[in-house]
Amino acid sequence: MAARLVFLTFLVVSTVLPLFSFDGYSLVSNTTSHLGAQSSPHAWVMNVTFIALGVMAVLVTVTTRVRYHQVFGALFGASLLLTGIFHHAPLMDGVPVDLFHDQMHSVFANATGFTFTLLAAGHGFMSHGRQRVAGFLLAAIAVIIPLCMWLVPDYMGLLQRTMFISAFWWLFFYMKPDVRR
User: Fold this and answer.
1) Beta strands in 47-151 (DSSP E)
2) Which pTM does this prediction carry?
3) Which long-range contacts (CB under 8 A, 24 or more apart) does 10-16 make?
4) Pairwise CA distance, residues 87 & 180, whole Å
5) Which tens digit of pLDDT belongs to each residue from 13-59?
6) What pLDDT is recorded for position 181?
7) How many CB atoms lie within 10 A of CB 8?
8) Residue 114: CB partners within 8 Å, gap ≥ 6?
9) What distance in Å separates the CA atoms of residue 3 and residue 168, rounded to the nearest whole number?
10) Which DSSP string do the residues of 37-63 spell out, in sequence order?
11) How many CB atoms lie within 10 A of CB 94?
């Protein structure tokens, strides 16, 4: 039930909050980190959502009884939680920047992607059948979409949301670790 609520919250916040963010924010080209950026209107909503996603990721993975999932899931969740604590630089002109927060946000955002990729790939290697396919597919998505975001930055907002929706749907509702591993 809690996972459903957190997932639904992410869907609503990431699609509705852009209507109340800074002038020029685009659901298509701006990321969710931009919603939570320093001095962005209502940034706290996106940042609390990152924290909730991180906590839920930890809760889901530590209860798996599979040490690999517990470790990498906890690292993934903690990194995501910390992206909600440390905020992206503001995208609005004339707003002071806290460089430490921006740099830490970048470190933890990258750690989030890296640890998720390891979690999904490891799940693929340890699983069979559809669970194996899903693990490898999510690991591929976690690598390919950021590359596409870099190559086609005009669509990075949509691409990132696609990646997040895929990742959290898999993690919260589909992933079933093989407890014999």
Assistant:
1) none
2) 0.95
3) 10/49, 10/52, 10/53, 10/164, 10/165, 10/168, 11/165, 13/45, 13/46, 13/49, 14/46, 14/49, 14/161, 14/164, 15/161
4) 40
5) 999 999 999 889 999 999 999 999 999 999 999 999 999 999 999 99
6) 60
7) 10
8) none
9) 9
10) STT-TTHHHHHHHHHHHHHHHHHHHHT
11) 6
